[in-house]
Amino acid sequence: MKLVQQVRYLTKYQSQRRVVVSGLGVVSPIGTGTKIVWDNLLKGHCGIVCLQEEDYKKLPCRIAGLISKQDDDVQKALSKANLKSMAPATCLALVATAEALVDAKWFPECDREKEMTGVALGMGMIDLKDVCDTNEALKIGYNKVSPFFVPRILPNMAAGQISIKYGFRGPNHSVSTACATGAHSIGDAYRFIKYGDADVMVCGGAESCISPLAIAGFCRLRALSTSFNDEPEKASRPFDQKRDGFVMGEGAAVLVLEEYEHALRRNAKIYAEILGYGLSGDGSHITAPREDGSGAMLSMGRALQDANIRKNEITYVNAHATSTPIGDGIESTAIKKLFGGHSSKISVSSTKGAHGHLLGAAGNLEAVFTILACQHGVIPPTLNLENPVDDLNYVANVPEKWQTERRVALKNSFGFGGTNATLCIAQI
């Protein structure tokens, strides 16, 4: 009887803990700083450029979404002193985190607040150039290998560095689930708060792994766009019939998630609410999704179930759609199958046309855009969408007003290995 009472209490406790977004920070190919990035996205700016270094000229893909090194915060973060002990992705994560914490006005001082503030932040890939350079150093001599080499390439070190810098002693968590990393990090952080492991979570993902070796590897997988090397701004074209592969991008996006009552007590700004989180595995192929879309359907369906909302409450899907010939069509199929007739009333867009595919930092960056769409009532567009693959209600090339009683969206992220994540995000 006592056990039953405990279970009932825990269930009630969990159901009462709502999770909201109180801070955002972004470093991306279309700008640094959330407001700048959002404005540029709505204006149709594109951050995909030609790769100028000599080593790229012999590769089939010679374009990428690069961050601007002109920003003062980015320049400072990527200083020689910082890069001696940290990977570039970790440096970018620290820039985005600083903005998010200032935005949330969250700088805990007492032990209790620090112990209930955690970090969940990952990356999809380590910096392959660092590995290659260190291997060359080893050929010269053992003493040429940096003592920071291993810490630099550990995928959890961005989360660790954030925790150390700010003294956060709640959950210190990192996932590396390929291109679903950022969404999984947000979803896991949401659950840490929901189940009482933390009151505040700093979460997201970071990626900075563009190098000749990385580009070559993805080219050998036939995953990258190779038809638009002379017109890089046209290369990433989700859901368009001329799409021929994704474009690698780099950057970081960090969210501050917070328990709703906790946010209210301190009069925090609230952007949106995380209603639910769904996960699934395709169990099918290392790079290709299941052709029937069942993996994506499971992920989206479980997010709806966790959010306890009906299908017809969803009026926007921020798609994973990376501009690959196979993946985009399968995601479209999954949306149609899951929502049936209601799919015609759902707006769909992928912002990767503007910034490329940030791999482990894709889901979190696009979650930021979904959150801002919920807040402002504007759906960001899919650039370069000229001839859609089908008749879904795609938001193409220009933003669209989001007019509905309550704005509720799904954010999809799918990764190699068949790992899928979906977030359900709503207007507060």
TrEMBL record:
Lineage, highest ranks first: Eukaryota, Metazoa, Ecdysozoa, Arthropoda, Hexapoda
Keyword Kinase: no
Key word Signal present: no
Keyword annotations of the record: Acyltransferase, Fatty acid biosynthesis, Fatty acid metabolism, Lipid biosynthesis, Lipid metabolism, Transferase
Catalytic activity: tetradecanoyl-[ACP] + malonyl-[ACP] + H(+) = 3-oxohexadecanoyl-[ACP] + holo-[ACP] + CO2; hexanoyl-[ACP] + malonyl-[ACP] + H(+) = 3-oxooctanoyl-[ACP] + holo-[ACP] + CO2; octanoyl-[ACP] + malonyl-[ACP] + H(+) = 3-oxodecanoyl-[ACP] + holo-[ACP] + CO2; dodecanoyl-[ACP] + malonyl-[ACP] + H(+) = 3-oxotetradecanoyl-[ACP] + holo-[ACP] + CO2
Database matches in NCBIfam families: fabF (TIGR03150), PRK07314.1 (NF005589)
Family: Belongs to the thiolase-like superfamily. Beta-ketoacyl-ACP synthases family.
Domain Ketosynthase family 3 (KS3) residues, every copy: 16-427
Protein name, entry field: 3-oxoacyl-[acyl-carrier-protein] synthase
Function: May play a role in the biosynthesis of lipoic acid as well as longer chain fatty acids required for optimal mitochondrial function.
A single GO cellular-component term on record: mitochondrion
GO molecular function annotations of the record: 3-oxoacyl-[acyl-carrier-protein] synthase activity
Superkingdom: Eukaryota
Active site (catalytic residues): 179
Pathway(s) the chain acts in: Lipid metabolism; fatty acid biosynthesis
GO BP terms: fatty acid biosynthetic process
